Amino acid sequence: MTAVLPTVMSMRTRDGVRLDADVYSPDGPGPFPVLLMRQPYGRRIASTVTYAHPSWYAARGYLVVIQDVRGRGTSEGEFEPFIHERDDGEDTLEWVSQLPGGNGRVGMYGFSYQGATQLFAAASRHPALKVVAPAMCAFHLDRDWAYEGGALRLYNTLSWAAQLGAESARRWGDAEGFSVCYGIGHAPSPVQLVDPAAPALREALADTFYGDWLDQAPGSDYWRQRSPGTMLDNVDIPALHVGGWYDSFLTGTLAAYQHFQKGRQPQRLLVGPWGHLPWIPQVGQRWLGDSACSPVDDLQLRWFDFFLKGENNGVTAEPPISLYDLGESDWKDFSAWPCRQAEKWYLVSNGRAGIDPHGGLLRARPGEGEPVEDVWVHDPWRPVPTQGGHLPPSPGIQERTALDARPDVLTYTTAAFAEPLALAGEVNVVLSCAADVDSFDLCVVLGVVDPEGRSHNLTQGYARVAGGVVTVSLRAICATVAAGQCLRLSISGASYPGYALNDGSGRVQGDIRSSDYPIMTLRLDVSESWLELPVVSATDNG
Questions:
Q1: In the chain, what is the straight-line distance between the N-terminal and C-terminal CA atoms, in Å?
Q2: Name one Pfam family in it (predicted).
Q3: How far apart are alpha carbons 259 and 235 in whole angstroms?
């Protein structure tokens, strides 16, 4: 039987830094192909919150290496997120390709930061790396991880900074610093109690990326230097891409899949119903049943068996895209990403879409009439809270019936459907809007209303805008709306603490203090606004 406890082995990078790893060896003489994971959370965890234990892969004929990246766990050096991962990844590939018991053929797996380390390693073009399986990670660090539509993902940013700050304090034996960071990261809703740019908070997280992420505008060289997507031109490698409809990094997963599709090597995309972790049937408040159990370990093993062992198991002959249908609670296969002509649904209102009776959504454009404008107020003292979707503190599928009833949330709802409506692909909303400030935020949620009038979110998008006619990109979706249900579009000026509030000035987040946030009056020209839905038919499936 393969040993559960690993052998600890070390290597040196090109600049002399020692990196430590756990190595799980199969029974038998080998040689075996190598599976590598590089991660910053303590290598013994080995991403077992989403994957089988490394010993499971070792028992199936792989030499499994789980490495602490530079400055994490027991590895030497100073940790700066992403900045060393290309060179250190290349050095690690050279080392694992020479390990006793290995055959020089390497695959990589892992999610989140561990997914990004695969992309950085692939950018090195080391010949030993034959296949990767990046899951739930950023392709461009600014727009897939830190920001969305120009707005800082505040809760995610603060929570991750606190986690990394606590690990640094642990390494240095700083018990007080660890406690401070632990308290920030484990508060029920930490950012509702603090000023994001407060000097005390900056000081508490001074040894993390937190201050930089507040101060660096999206699109700057800072982000490009830390984004694997800027380094992967002409890299052609087989890849299994894994995402989740309620994972915060879904845009990165889809961007990586679309990028690698430009090459000749096989690509596979699987998007499940999950949030970032864990990959289980409970998604927010909804239990989806056995169909939502993760198939990733088994699929990943077949993927590695094909590319690292040469087993003719037919995995590349299967449909390249598998998407979980959130309405039917089942998987659907596609031969290509469902990119059909969007179907427009038009907003209608009597000017009181924030108060009963709510506005409507029509499949046919209404006749000409007097322009209708919905007006609402965003109050930073009581901002619309984050509830459901792809960001903490309450990710996944959540009931938002009471939230939709708030006067500062505009809602537009279809009539009940007489027959099912299948959706798969990109969702966009075009809004003609304005405000009494130079910059304001729009949170747009597409949800389903059941026959009893309860609403639950399907997908959402967020954008920091200056007004005019703007397009808010919601996250891609696969869902069948059942007969008797309705679709609802909900629009608000905030989603806090998922996103930082807007002070209306257009300044970088680090220059803004909580006392700067103004009350805003927002206006929506309903007659010039619409929803674009990816309606598909049964023949669209591959």
A1: 41
A2: Peptidase_S15
A3: 9
Q: Which helix (H) or strand (E) holds 456?
A: strand 455-465
What phi and psi, each to the nearest 5 degrees, are found at residue 4?
A: -75, -35
Question: Residue 269: phi, psi to the nearest 5?
Answer: -125, 130
Tell me how far the alpha carbon of residue 39 is from its chain's centroid.
17
Q: Which residue has the tokens 């239990």?
A: 287
DSSP 144: I
The series of mean pLDDT values per 10 residues for the chain, 542 residues long, is: 82 98 95 98 97 98 98 97 98 98 98 98 98 98 98 96 96 96 83 81 96 97 98 98 98 98 97 98 98 98 98 98 98 91 93 86 87 95 96 96 97 97 97 98 98 97 97 98 98 97 96 96 97 84 58
Residue 393, φ and ψ in degrees, nearest 5:
-90, 0
Going by C-beta distance under 8 Å and a sequence separation of 6 or more, which residues neighbour residue 310?
none
- Cis preceding-peptide flag for 134 (omega within 30 of 0): no
Query: CA nearest 522: which of 483, 492, 482, 478?
Result: 492
Burial 71-102 (b: 16+ CB within 10 A, else e): bbbebebebebbebbbbbbbbbbbbbbebeeb
**pTM for the model:** 0.97
Length of the chain: 542
Q: Which two tokens stand for residue 253?
A: 């997963």
Rg of the chain, C-alpha, whole Å: 24
